[in-house]
Amino acid sequence: MVGALDTVIGVVPVVSAFLSATDRWQSLKVRLGFGRMNYQLDPGLYAVGAPDAKAQALVTANYKLSFDSLRPHLAGRDLWLLVLDTNGVNVWCAAGKGAFGTDELVTRLRSSGLEQLLAHRQLILPQLAGPGIAAHLLPKLTGFSVRYGPILAVDLPVYLDAHCQATAAMRLKKFPFSERALLSPLELLLALKGSLPFFILLVLLFGFAPGNGYQQNVIAHALAGLFPYGAGVLAGTVLTPLLLPYLPGRAFAVKGAVAGLVVAVGLLFFSLPQHWLQNSGGLLLIVVLSSYWGMKFTGASTYTSLSGVKKEMRYAVPLQIAGGLVGLGCWLAACFF
Amino acid sequence: MSKLVYLQEVVTLSLDRQRCMGCTMCVIVCPQAVFSMVDGRAKIASRDHCMECGACAKNCPVEAISVKAGVGCAEAVLNRMLGRKSGSCCCLLEDEEGSLPGPEVGGRGGCC
After folding, report:
1. How many structural domains is chain A composed of?
2. What is the ipTM of this complex?
3. Which of A194, A264, A299, B28 is least surrounded by CB atoms within 10 angstroms?
């Protein structure tokens, strides 16, 4: 908030087109999963610059990360920003769930007072709002027409300067290395958060295996198990996203398994300290874990269909379970030799 | 980016070209460039690129397009199989009837 604009409908908050150090720090925290579920701003009307009745009106979600990815590309312009209530969810996900939907747009358009401020009757929506908005219904419901802008905010200046014409390239959702690298840390942290309790539980159970005393057993298995566990998680949540286009196979479970296999084969060049049976089990577990988390990356990816995910899971999940059991079985069996 | 194509021959997308009136909305909203215009009507040009987001069907004024829209997310499918009401992600699937989970159970997240 850098100021306030006095209008016929009252005071409209003016936001900066520049991100503050706090904005950047908060974005980083959210990217790493801290406070991600509650990073919101109040829905309603905002202004950039000093918009008048002829200024364009852009519509976005009340996820602060979405809002902040939009603002820097509006520098030097006078625009209205209509922020819909999407429960702090980004545009694309919220559109898919219906929160960034026709009803919310109609309601917010009225309650914000934007209708009264504009001499024209056109709204610009992000293209990825498409799954939630029936653009052809808007004129009948509100008198406004909807134009879909580009997918990325970075293309907005060119789009706006070209009288709201998007190129074919702007309309294509790409999934470049930079975006995959940005998503990977969160994948890693969520994977660790979800799986560490199981890892600890397994280590505590392996303490009962024959051999030395319980405590020594636990420590030995924790240290030995850290390798396949850590390698599997890293291969699935870091290597798989980063190398996604170069990994063979179309199914993410296959891509993940290949990434795990590469890591497992790489580890063979080191002298592995355990019994051969334990080593085999460990290497198999790396492939299984990497396949599992690779498969989960379908959720963050931008081109997977639900039908496809269901299809790959039908064969991947049973194989992952079987592989996991065999891997753990080898590990356990080795304790008896 | 041509390397990033998901599984072949799985998607539920279909287009009734007879109904199409050539408004080009599907070409505009599709983020995967699945559609192209041929002889003034839409055509499914690259079917395997479809991610079933549902934007085309939602924005087709004559209901010429049908697709079983959903989010291609393994976590969501797992959550559904395990009967979970919420996940670490925004990931919950719609009911089979197509009703959306309310904002209190799903909808919150930012992974995708």
Report:
1. 2
2. 0.88
3. A194
B80 and B45 inside one domain: no
Q: Cβ contact (<8 Å) for B100 and A299?
A: no
Tokens of B4: 């990033």
Nearest Cα residue in chain B from A252: B6
For chain B, the distance separating the N- and C-terminal CA atoms, rounded to the nearest angstrom, is 19
CA dist., res. A4 & res. A15, Å (int): 9
Whether B34 is covered by a domain: the verdict is: yes
Q: Is A16 on the interface with B (CB under 8 A)?
A: no
pLDDT digits (tens, 9 = 90+) for A239-260: 999 999 999 999 999 999 999 9
pLDDT in tens, A73-102: 999 999 999 999 999 999 999 999 999 999
Asked if B43 and B76 sit in the same domain, the reply is no
Q: Give B15→chain A minimum CA distance, Å.
A: 17
Range of the domain at B54: 14-66
Co-location of A139 and A25 in the same domain: yes
Q: In this structure, what CATH number is given to the domain that contains residue B44? A: 3.30.70.20
B62 touches chain A (CB under 8 A): no
| Residue contact B109–A89, C-beta within 8 A | yes
State the nearest Cα–Cα gap between B99 and chain A, in angstroms. 10
Nearest Cα neighbor of B36 from B49, B24, B54 is B24
